[in-house]
Amino acid sequence: MTVAAVTSTAGISAAQAEARQANPCNFRVDRDSAYPYFMFAHWNNCTDHRQLVHVDLAFWPDEERCLPPGDTFLGAADPRLLPISFVRNAWLVRDC
Cα–chain-centroid distance for residue 38? Predict the structure, then answer.
């Protein structure tokens, strides 16, 4: 008897699945190839609608931003850039 492995893609194409794997959904911090010594914060909205995201900033009041689908640059995420404010975290509040 042969058992086939089934992967649930929830209605997304193989190309979309690969893109999500390369850029995971929601908050991430990565190094930019142009500036390999610094870290940058991004929000990757994998939905087809806008998301209200709470952005936790160091040394500055937090913000809530309504972000479109796709990858959005949030700002520097590197404490070595002091005294400039930097992004510590971000999380989904609701759709907007």
Answer: 17
Which residue from 44, 45, 32, 34 is spatially nearest to 77, judged by alpha carbons?
32
Q: How far apart are the first and last CA of the chain?
A: 49
How long a stretch of residues is the chain? 96
pLDDT digits (tens, 9 = 90+) for 56-92: 998 889 999 999 999 999 988 877 765 667 899 999 9
Gap between the Cα atoms of 47 and 95, Å rounded: 10
Measuring CA to CA, which residue among 20, 13, 8 is closest to residue 69?
A: 20
Question: What predicted TM-score, i.e. pTM, was given to this entire model?
Answer: 0.69
